[in-house]
Amino acid sequence: MTLVKSEILNIENRIWNSVEKENGIGLLSGLSGIALFYSNLYEVYKEEKYSTRLSEVIARIDELVSENDSLPTFCSGLAGYGWMLLNLKTTTIDISKAYFKTLDIILEEALFSFADKNDYDFLHGATGVAMYFMERLKVDQNNEEIRTILTLFSRDLLYKLNTNFDTVIIVKGSETKKDIICFGLAHGIASFINFLFYLSQYFKSLESEIKQALRKLISFLNSKKSFNKVSQQYYPSYIDNQENVGHARLGWCQGDLGIGLALYNAGTLLNNNAIKQEALDVITATEKISLETSGVRDCSLCHGSTGLIIQYYLAQKKCSIDTKEIQNRWYQELENQTCNFTTVKAYLNPGFSEHSNILVGAAGLGLTLLTLDEKIKNDWLRCLNLY
């Protein structure tokens, strides 16, 4: 999978031509993800035009933030925007401490508001907002205000997981929607596992409570594990309060591959080889799933071939297993889906459309290709709850 520069430049050109029409600031769903792409692209090629374009994208985000009320979320709002600013690869853009202080105030209120409602969704709720504060602490380890915010949030979350588990994992419905429990990396049980695994790196003092919560999450996964002949996977996409089961696609947002990676992280932290082996079994079993059965219809990172390739790549790096063959198989499908990287279309019901963001568009594809070619580090995958 050797990347030809013309391929990435074609992707970049499509992204740049879309910037003027993009009105979302999101890290995964909008302009902040495009800025992250340009930050990494400039680091690789050192061409001034990429630095200039990065500056212009950030200026556009700043304009949108000043003119409109923005969501606080990680996927689409201020938490993801702040996370991106903290991960810029260049010093040419100077963000003042006062600017981050303003974001801190807004996002602290959002963090505890989500927590009070037991909304711990990674993309749209509390754990995503917490990712911003963990990044703040990573950059400034002596910031006691940020540490206090995260400590209070983390202790509350762990108390709920360990004493009143259902209130955290159940997504409450409405008159027209049922209560559900999700399982994947975007919204569900695997999302909690990976978040706690990452949290443990910042709060060794909470390790006992984190391990207890991980055991509860794994026990719940085990209680619902059952091979499904339709999806060819062991875990559903969701179950509702009437025990209806959603068949999972194989992707990043849902499916056994992401759950297996999360289980491996949990087994590592718990120093439990049986859990790690179970995780490897789940991961390798997904390699037998055909294109037709997988539910993959496009090249997107969220639920398409790009998301599968980057997860198999990560599995090889962290689990010491050989996934080159399955990476190559899905890479060939990716080439077909993009007509050799000349078009980037995601399937969003009822049809296909072009996007430039990380989650379903060209920025996610570009960052993935640069990673596979080892031109950039894979640390940006933290924004996808992948470690």
Strand-helix topology:
Elements: H1 5-18, H2 31-45, H3 48-67, H4 78-86, H5 97-116, H6 126-139, H7 144-163, H8 165-169, E1 180-182, H9 189-199, H10 207-224, E2 238-240, E3 245-246, H11 256-269, H12 273-285, H13 291-294, H14 305-319, H15 324-337, E4 345-348, E5 351-354, H16 362-372
Antiparallel strand pairs: 1-2, 2-3, 4-5
Report a brief summary of the structure.
With about 375 residues, the chain is mostly helical. The chain has helices spanning about 5-20, 30-45, 50-65, 80-85, 95-115, 125-140, 145-165, 165-170, 190-200, 205-225, 255-270, 275-285, 290-295, 305-320, 325-335, 360-370, and strands spanning about 180, 240, 245, 345-350, 350-355.
Low-confidence stretches: none
Distance between the termini: 22 Å
Helix-and-strand structural type: mainly alpha
Q: What is the number of beta strands?
A: 5
* Average pLDDT level: 96
